[in-house]
């Protein structure tokens, strides 16, 4: 938390319901701009969503790289 933004990140890692040999990542970032900057979150929301999605995909790829193949 800073004087202009508050961020709470939550990352959960669990077995994939589709493949017991894979892990899936659930990532939530609650971001709140403070003060006069608060209404401007709408302008960066899409970019932050895309950044989070890319981070989850990268983390899942890394975590599953060493998993045994299901075939």
Describe what you observe in this structure.
The protein is α+β, with helices and mostly antiparallel strands and 71 residues long. Helices cover 34% and strands 31% of the residues. The protein has one helix at residues 41-64; strands spanning 5-15, 23-33. Strands 1-2 form a two-stranded antiparallel ribbon. A hairpin with a 7-residue loop joins strand 1 (5-15) and strand 2 (23-33). The termini are far apart. The mean pLDDT is 88.
In short:
The radius of gyration is 16 Å and the shape is elongated. 34% of the residues lie in helices and 31% in strands.
From N to C, what is the helix and strand string? EEH
Mean pLDDT across the residues is: 88
Weakly predicted, low-confidence segments: none
Number of helices: 1
**What percent of the residues sit in helical stretches (DSSP H or I)?**
25-40%
Distance between the termini: 45 Å
| Inertia-based shape | elongated
Strand order of the largest sheet: 1-2
Strand content: 25-35%
List keywords for this structure.
71 residues; alpha+beta; 2 strands; elongated
What is the secondary structure topology, with strand pairs?
Layout: E1 5-15, E2 23-33, H1 41-64
Antiparallel strand pairs: 1-2
